[in-house]
Amino acid sequence: MSPSPVFPIAASVFRESVRDRVPYNLVIFAILLMGASYLLGQLTAGQELKIIKDLGLAAMSMFGLFIALFIGIGLVSKEVERRSIYGLLSKPISRAQFLLGKYVGLVVTLVVNVGVMSVALYAVLGYMAVTESEDFKRGWEAPALDPMLIVAIGLILLGLMLVTAIALLFSTFSSPMVSAATTLGLYVAGHFSDDLRHLDQSVDSRVAGVLGRLLSYLLPDLSVFDVKARVVHGLPVPFDEVAWAVGYGLVYIVGLLAVSILIFNRRDFK
Amino acid sequence: MTAAIRTQELTKDYPVGFWRTRRYRALDDVSLDVARGEAFGLLGPNGAGKTTTLKLLFQLVFPTAGRAEILGRPAGDIAVKRRIGYLPENPSFYDYLTAEELLSYFAGVFGYQGAERTRRVARLLDTVGIESERRLPLRRYSKGMLQRVGLAQALVNDPEVVVLDEPMSGLDPIGRRQVSDLILGLRTEGRTVFFSSHILTDAERLCSRVAVLARGRLMSTGRIGDTDVFGIRGWELVVANVDPVRLDRFRTEGVSVRPIADDRVAIDLGLETRPEQIASELVAAGASLLAMNPLRDTLEDYFFKTVGRANTDDTADRFDA
Q1: Count of domains for chain B
Q2: DSSP H or E segment with residue A42
Q3: Whether B79 and A92 lie within 8 Å, measured CB to CB
Q4: Which terminus has fewer CB within 10 Å in chain B: N or C?
Q5: Domain end point (choices B202, B228, B254)
Q6: Across the interface, do A90 and B86 touch by the CB < 8 Å criterion?
Q7: What is the spatial distance between Cα A88 and Cα B88, in angstroms, rounded to a whole number?
Q8: Residue A46 φ/ψ, nearest 5 degrees
Q9: Is residue B134 included in any domain, yes or no?
Q10: Of B62, B79, B150, Cβ closest to residue A268
Q11: CATH number at residue B76
Q12: Nearest chain A Cα distance for residue B80, angstroms
């Protein structure tokens, strides 16, 4: 017997995303982009390693965001729209298990997609490490196959998991359009939470300052997951900072899932 | 023994409108008992509250008041959901899956694995008559085929109680016959079948009892064949070669005489007349007795009377103020 219906539901989300051509296209596009960045590196003496790492990590973030956003906002609303939710929720599944299954399924999809992109990035970097001369390598700020890249990728993935949880939350009660707009808005705002926190230093309004600070604590701070620039330049990323980002991300995700379940548990499917 | 399905004063209001929402009463104080092993038909025209009742049983919507129980447990109980099956109205599933994959998915949700899952899926698809199409994506299926897949998924766990929302909808005559046989088979196996329909002949053929809903209210429940609901209101004699003078005498006595074809006629007798006496007289006079049938209210009559009453009597708006 299967330990939980969460797994078949998660597997179905993954299967649907695999049959959906969008993730494939995104992965192919990401690989093409990394190839292009390599060609660009050929023209930019001494900077190609940084450019490839930078573009590779940025592409992972962007394509991961597209996957999290466009699949995430439809996770629940599509089931309601096509009325397939009636058949599924009549089975021995709680609504919480349904949501968790959907979430886990999309996270697995993201892990596989980011994984494929990481392998492609490392393959390009590995090729460079083998083919470039030792003299040339001395100018690199960090080694080509820098293990810190994995930390950066891991934090990108955690950030995407948080975005997925936001998309899932909105998907439980609103239309895909509203979910997409709100999730994207929060994603953008989440990268500026530091600016919001210090709004009182740039505007001459106490109310705006307090409001900004309040919002900065409420909104997800996605900047904590962004260590790309430092990793690319070979600068240190302290363990404490990574641990804080992981803890913050997990707590925020659990909180978002809990709110999603609370809302979803009360919803009527007319 | 606890009832298979019990609703007590079940009521459901839906909010209507975006700004200044009003409440629309979809179901109003419905109390029902469905015994184990019976086939029970929930009848009513469109908008009567049939689908809302069934959704309340699976907690797809929550009651405004009252309660619903299946097999003695509250609606939505996970343990009970292992023992029941549900066919939603106009079922719609994941159109990128094949019928095999869909049933395999649902079987997996119930915890069936490996060879047992494969066997179960194949058997169910055989049962509902999905043959070589089982490996086609559902987006290629006709409405009738989707209905059959819907039935198969409702039976994936060998349920004790099967709840079917308009199971005959979208089916051609052969499909209707197959589904009828399937329901009769479930009944023979001792399972409880609770289904909604607005097709009365189906209910007449399949149900031991029916309930009629109209405008969200329970109008009546009755056992088919129960004289209270479908009482005998007379007898019909089908006879041939009757002396025309005798037929004229029937007519002058106010008895309805309906020519059928050739020399055959149908004579409708009231309950106060003993049909066997009239039949003997006619046969003694040289007529041939072809049939003697009880005249009952059909389900159509019953349905029309009760629903008609709801439509004409109903002065209360289903919206709140």
Answers
A1: 2
A2: helix A21-43
A3: yes
A4: C
A5: B228
A6: yes
A7: 10
A8: 80, -15
A9: no
A10: B62
A11: 3.40.50.300
A12: 8
> Hey, how many other C-beta atoms are within 10 angstroms of the C-beta on B317?
10
Residues B56, B10 share a domain: yes
Determine, for residues A92 and B78 on separate chains, whether the beta-carbon distance falls below 8 Å: yes
In a domain, B130, yes or no: no
Statement to judge: residues B69 and B190 lie in one domain: yes
Residue numbers in A near B95 (CB within 8 A): 82
Write the ipTM: 0.82
Residues on chain B touching A268 (C-beta within 8 angstroms): 14, 60-62
Domain encompassing residue B261 = 233-295
Nearest CA in chain A to B61: A268
Pick from B59, B81, B153: CB nearest A87:
B153
pTM score, whole prediction: 0.84
Tokens of A33: 């982009």
- Is B318 domain-assigned? no
Q: What's the CATH code of the domain at B266?
A: 3.30.70.3100
List per-residue pLDDT tens for chain B, 321 residues long: 789 999 999 999 998 887 778 888 999 999 999 999 999 999 888 888 999 999 999 999 999 999 999 999 999 899 999 999 999 998 888 888 999 999 999 999 999 988 999 999 999 999 888 888 898 999 999 888 899 999 999 999 999 999 999 998 878 888 888 888 889 999 999 999 999 988 777 787 888 888 988 889 998 888 766 645 566 788 999 999 998 888 889 889 888 899 998 889 999 998 888 889 999 999 999 999 999 988 877 666 766 776 666 665 554 556 664
**Binary contact (B109, A86; C-beta < 8 A):** no
A22 interfaces chain B, CB cutoff of 8 Å: no
Q: Is residue B93 part of a domain?
A: no
Token output for A217: 């604590």
Domain check: are B260 and B210 in the same one?
no
User: Do the Cβ atoms of B88 and A86 come within 8 Å?
Assistant: yes
A269 in contact with chain B, both atoms CB, cutoff 8 A: yes
Contact A1, A96 (CB under 8 A): no
B169, B74: one domain = yes
Indicate if B167 and B291 belong to the same structural domain: no
Q: Which helix (H) or strand (E) holds A162?
A: helix A148-171
Residues B215 and B242 in one domain: no
DSSP summary character for residue A175: -
Q: Which of A68, A237, A234, A27 is nearest to A151 (CA)?
A: A237
- Contact yes or no for B67/B105 (Cβ under 8 A): no
Same-domain pairing of B179 and B217: yes
Same domain, B168 and B290: no
- The last residue of one of the domains, among B194, B228, B262, is B228
Dihedral pair phi/psi, residue B271, rounded to 5°:
-65, -25
Contact state of A9 with B88 under an 8 Å Cβ cutoff: no
Mutation to test the B interface, candidates A22, A86, A89, A264, most B Cβ within 10 Å: A86
